[in-house]
Write a structure and sequence with these properties.
about 950 residues, alpha/beta, 8-stranded mixed β-sheet, 7-stranded mixed β-sheet, about 15% strand, globular, EC 1.2.4.2, glycolysis
């Protein structure tokens, strides 16, 4: 019998009795779900069909299976009834190697990881011998086995080499089969077929030497100064070089990077091109070599930041046509909070905002790269929040390349104490992100991992993670002694050769370089470093830190005309009330919207929602793109916006703002995930990268912005003076005391006022729809200019539908935003005014409601009182307040009235500013809630009593000059 004739016979002829019963059981599982059986068995069923039924009593001819010898020739072997069972077990072994081979991979430079249990990776566990594996054709257990691999033993050995040596691949958690198969094919076949050329290897060695010498040169030249060196994960730099090459080659015009401080200086100089001399100057001019992190002596900028927080830009050319700009984002010591900022950069770089409708995204035009810390990646929740952007319509960016710079320590904390997961990277599995673990001491494997990551991103537009496993040469910084907390680890570190030297030896052994060539590379690199230091010392004046500028006077004080003609407003309003033929709007909502049709006619009123829609529409007609995001922003938390309509019959959506004939720019509107920190960071990054775009983030409730405090503190309020980074971002924070308890009342106005300095913000608390209209248009007008500042808005809740805040149409067509509004009807007889009330926000409307004349009261009942609403709190409207005070010569007291507790709200901010503008004879008093630790009561009846007391005291003439104790 020939081998060919055996090949054509059914394998079921080899089995009978219990063995045939086993095959029938497998076939039944195959019929239910083909993927429930091993791939090798599935292939047999698909090729040969069902086995003969045992119950039918079929006779089975026993013929020997084909044995493939090591030289590839065929021979006949005596039949083994358990042959198919061996195939099944070999298939299980292959599956385990692919799934769990990473546990045995040799990618720990110091050997710190305890040996794992790898019995599931051994043939003996499945009762397989070498002879058994040699008898199995490789194609039965490895579908794509190359022709050079003939039998199962060879296949198993090759797969072990792939999955259990340099690389630790984790792909089994990827649900998309085409992605998983592509990744498997890349690992098993493609990576090994693309070795680095001799020229690439020598270039890689040169880069590793540059990285090493840069660190050791600074260490020797600036003794005792911190730099947070890269040593131990030196290969990160050539990996980033490779990312730049690959992504630029694929056509990306922008590469946006974010990383913490470890290794940042090395990345700045070697990847971003910051000159050695510029970095050395920052060390050379440190006023005190022992200063703590953040000290002024090592700052740059206005108030500046430490050198290992600063970012940079660089442009590189791929060939003659494509120019790629690399940006490393500035980042504070809140390690991972730069992640969403970079994600915002990337999406902004990809979006075409030049036409009406949603922006059109080109994911290939830009790529994000994030370098994480191994303790911070699982430890900081902002990482998970940012990973969640991966597939969200408003936030995805076509895949981010993540690299964990894994030095096995968080500050001084061992991994055992800093995470509950086996790997630092395990968080990424929940987001189906492919993971490759690779040793920083294996530079060629690191480059191969980067190439796989870039190809995966290019093909599938999804994230990829590389766990770069290394160590940390020094302590948390170079002044820190790590041996007190990790003595055994640093005993190994101190005797471990640096990566450049290890790789040089490897290349010398393979004949790629000689000892003389390596020595020349080191000599040339050292000469460049020394020349740069000599330049700094010899030209001291050229490299001194810039002076701190007086940024407070940068903003010009001028009114900006923001009115829009009624003719244009009416045209826009009519177009906003049109929807496609056949599109049905919710009946209740349709009635609400159609009431807006006459709002701009004589006698009409413009409410808050319409004022906002008209502002957005006119801004779009001016050619300024808008991006609005937050939880439920399409309809708004308080259901006043409704810019995306839903057809109740089929849930089709339609936004009139997207088909507006007047629009000349895009309008992006996205309901956000339930994550304030990452979303606000994303919007900040989007705005910084595209400063011409009006970017707005709305909190569901203003209180929820607390969850984004790091973004507010470290980026939004301070980036201008730390990094000269401009932003015109708007934060809409619903604020107002309406008896809804502690977490739904206060947007913490006091916090933003505390953070206001050096003309860094605009903070408002408005009381009319027209004011909101003009404010939005004013902010749009100053975008991408020196005037631009982040705008913090205490936006209303119940006032949205309060008739008192609705505006006459003429108030939108005329004028501009007013810093202070005076209560109509009061203050007409200036010499009779005894009490002057200043307030801001919703309490002004409560006061207005309390001014209604009671039965029997004369028209001059309120001549003793005047009320002024401070609509813009920062910058404080000094001249407006001074002019109002000066108009009333007989004022006995000035009250600041607020609904927040005394230690909150604006009182502590405005009190000295008001007191400085009144005479010594005028009393300045506070009326509001007493000091509290919680923002508001949770009992509605208590809230009502408190609110009534505030209004009663403020509007009661008998309380003139009452002392504050009696007032309470």
């Amino acid at each position: 019998m020939t081998a060919d004739s055996i090949d054509r016979k059914s394998p079921w002829e080899l089995y009978y009795g219990p063995n045939l019963g086993y095959i029938e059981e497998m076939y039944e599982r195959f019929l239910r779900n083909p993927n429930d059986v091993d791939p090798a068995v599935k292939e047999l069923f698909e090729k040969w069909g069902p086995p003969p039924s045992v119950s039918a009593g079929s006779s089975v001819n026993v013929n020997p299976p084909l044995k493939v010898t090591t030289d590839g020739s065929n021979s006949i072997k005596t039949i083994d009834p358990a042959y198919l069972k061996k195939i099944v077990n070999a298939g299980k072994l292959v599956r385990n190697i692919r799934t769990f081979g990473h546990l045995a991979a040799d990618n720990d430079p110091l050997g710190l990881t305890p040996p794992p249990d790898t019995r599931l990776l051994e043939p003996s566990t499945f009762k397989l011998t070498d002879e058994d594996l040699e008898a199995i054709p490789a194609s039965l257990i490895w579908e794509e086995a190359p022709e050079t691999i003939g039998n199962g033993k060879q296949a198993i050995q090759h797969l072990k080499d792939v999955y259990m040596k340099s690389f630790g691949f984790e792909f089994a958690h990827i649900h998309e089969q085409d992605e998983r198969l592509w990744l498997r094919r890349q690992a098993e076949l493609v990576m090994s077929s693309k070795p680095m050329t001799a020229q690439e290897r020598i270039g890689l060695l040169q880069r590793l030497i540059d990285v090493e010498q840069f660190e050791t040169f600074i260490h020797r030249s600036f003794v005792g100064q911190k730099r947070f060196s890269i040593e131990g994960i030196d290969t990160l730099v050539p990996m980033l070089d490779e990312v730049v090459r690959e992504v630029a080659h694929d056509g990306a015009r922008h590469i946006l990077m974010g990383m913490a401080h470890r290794g940042r200086l090395n990345v700045l100089t070697h990847v971003l091109g910051k000159p050695y001399a510029a970095i050395f100057a920052e060390f050379h001019h440190s006023a005190n070599k022992d200063m703590a992190e953040g000290a002024l002596g090592i700052n740059t900028g206005w108030t500046g930041d430490v050198k290992y927080h600063l970012g940079a830009h660089r442009s590189v050319k791929e060939g003659e046509t494509v120019e790629t700009r690399i940006t490393l984002a500035n980042n504070p010591s809140h390690l991972e909070y730069v992640n969403p900022v970079v994600a915002g950069f990337a999406r902004a770089a990809q979006d075409d905002r030049s036409k009406a409708g949603y922006p059109v995204s080109d994911f290939g035009s830009a790529a994000g790269v994030l370098i994480h810390g191994d303790a911070a990646f699982p430890g900081e929740g902002i990482v998970a929040e940012t990973l969640n952007f991966k597939k969200l319509r408003g936030y995805e960016s076509g895949g981010t390349i993540h690299i964990i710079g894994n030095n096995r320590l968080g500050f001084t904390t061992d991994s055992l104490d800093s995470r509950s997961t086996y790997y630092a990277s395990d968080l990424a599995k929940g987001y189906e992100i492919p993971i490759v673990h690779v040793s920083a001491d294996d530079p060629e494997a690191c480059i191969a991992a980067v190439r796989m990551a870039c190809e995966y991103r290019q093909k599938f537009h999804k994230d990829f993670l590389i766990d770069l496993i290394g160590y940390r040469r020094y302590g948390h910084n170079e002044t820190d002694d790590p041996e007190t907390t990790q003595p055994l680890v640093y005993k190994k570190v101190n005797s471990h050769a640096v990566i450049a030297r290890l790789y040089a030896e490897k290349l010398k052994e393979k004949g790629f370089v000689t000892e003389e060539q390596v020595a020349a590379l080191r000599k040339n690199g050292l000469a460049k470093l020394q020349a740069a230091l000599d330049e700094v010392k010899g030209n001291d004046k050229n490299h001194k830190q810039p002076k701190i500028d007086d940024v407070g006077s940068k903003r010009r004080k001028k009114d900006i005309a923001t009115g829009v003609s009624l003719k244009k407003l009416r045209e826009i309003n009519a177009d906003l009330l049109k929807w496609p033929e056949g599109f049905k709007v919710n009946d209740k909502l349709e009635r609400i919207l159609t009431r807006r049709a006459g709002a701009l006619d004589k006698g009409g009123k413009v409410d808050w929602g319409l004022a906002e829609s008209l502002a957005f529409a006119t801004i779009l007609s001016d050619g300024t793109p808008i991006r609005l995001s937050g939880q439920d922003v399409e309809r708004a938390t308080f259901a006043f916006r409704n810019l995306v309509l839903h057809d109740p019959t089929n849930n089709a959506t339609y936004s009139p703002m997207h088909t507006l004939p007047q629009a000349k720019a895009s309008f992006a509107l996205h309901n956000s995930p339930l994550a304030e920190a990452s979303v606000l960071g994303f919007e900040y990054g989007y705005n910084v990268f595209s400063p011409e775009t009006l970017v707005i983030w709305e909190a569901q409730y203003g209180d929820f912005a607390n969850c984004a405090q790091v973004i507010v503190d470290q980026f939004i309020t301070a980036s201008r003076v730390k990094w000269r980074q401009q932003s015109g971002l708007i934060m809409l924070l619903p604020h107002g005391y309406e008896g809804n308890g502690p977490e739904h009342s206060s947007a913490r106005l006091e916090r933003y006022l505390q953070l206001a300095a050096e003309d860094n913000l605009t903070i408002v608390n408005m009381t009319s729809a027209s004011q909101y209209f003009h404010l939005l248009r004013r902010q749009a007008a100053i975008l991408n200019t020196e005037e631009a500042r982040p705008l913090i808005v205490m936006s209303p809740k119940s006032l949205i539908r309060n008739a008192s805040v609705a505006s006459e149409p003429s108030e939108l067509s005329e004028g501009s935003f007013k810093l202070v509004l005076e209560q109509p009807g009061l203050g007409k007889k200036a010499d009779k005014v005894e009490r002057l009330i200043f307030c801001t926000g919703k309490v002004a409307i409560d006061l207005e409601a309390g001014l209604e004349l009671k039965e029997g009261e004369s028209a001059d009942a309120w001549d003793w009182l005047h009320i002024a609403r401070v609509e813009q709190l920062y910058p404080f409207p000094k001249s407006d307040v001074e002019q109002i005070i000066a108009r009333f010569p007989n004022v006995k007291e000035v009250l600041w009235v607020q609904e927040e507790p005394q230690n909150m709200g604006a009182w502590n901010y405005v009190e000295p500013r008001i007191r400085a503008r009144v005479s010594d004879k005028t009393t300045v008093r506070y009326v509001g809630r007493p000091k509290r630790s919680s923002t508001a009561t949770g009992f509605h009846n208590v809230h009502v009593i408190e609110q009534q007391r505030i209004i009663s005291v403020a509007l009661n003439r008998s309380t003139l000059n009452a002392n504050s104790q009696g007032e309470k």
